[in-house]
Amino acid sequence: MPEAAWTCIPLPPGSTGCMAISKKAYKAELHTLQIALVESQARLIAQGRKVLILFEGRDTAGKDGSIKRVTEYMAPRHTRVISLPKPSDRELSQWYFQRYVAHLPAAGEIVIFNRSWYNRAGVEVVMGFSSLEEQSDFIRDVPAFEAMLTEANIVPIKIWLDISKEEQARRLEARVEDPLKHFKTSPLDGEAQKRWHAYTEARDSMLLRSHSAHAPWLIVATDDKKQARLNVMRHLVERLAVRNLSVDTRAIDPDIAFMFEPEALIDGRMAR
Question: Which residues touch 160 (CB under 8 Å, ≥6 apart)?
Fold first, then answer.
């Protein structure tokens, strides 16, 4: 790829990576990564592989925007984006994972969850939408559930989009002011800032107890949306692990994205 496509505004001395990226450079790398994803998907379809991608994160962290760029040129018949509504009374009576299992990928499919079963470890904990017993059962069972997925040859890719409190406040305000973001608003938006610390505690507990070798979490800092999207896509290309693509892609920037480790909760890499 031409050198100009990688141009970015550097961080201060002593740091690596980019603080911001030019519009031209962003579009160039986005195009390259989308080619890589399309070629990877074509190979996955031919091989009958099953891929499951979970996007999680606080409100306004950029899940919709990331998913849009990832799926923009993917095969519609082999790509599904799942964003489930509030469970019905019937679903509430079922095994918790049951309504998610119905959407798992078949051979040759990529399924993307825009929020997933991890609602039970996040918003349900903070807002009291489930009992302490239900939450305890979930966090106990989720590693085994995800191990079953890998044993069924489903590739789970879990992504946590991390945003600072200040940037979240700015984006929440922008939602209210922009009429085109009407469908992004929610009655719970106001709680995101009021209960920031409760959400932080829930996130920390969730990551510590659900990160595993077979289903690890990627953490992506999203205050810079463009850098976040590029690093999400770099990670997907790497995890799909299709060789001999027609384009070269970069590794994730460790200042933007990294595989979760407990130290990240206290060393400043994650928002608090």
Answer: 56, 57, 203, 207, 217, 218, 219, 220, 260
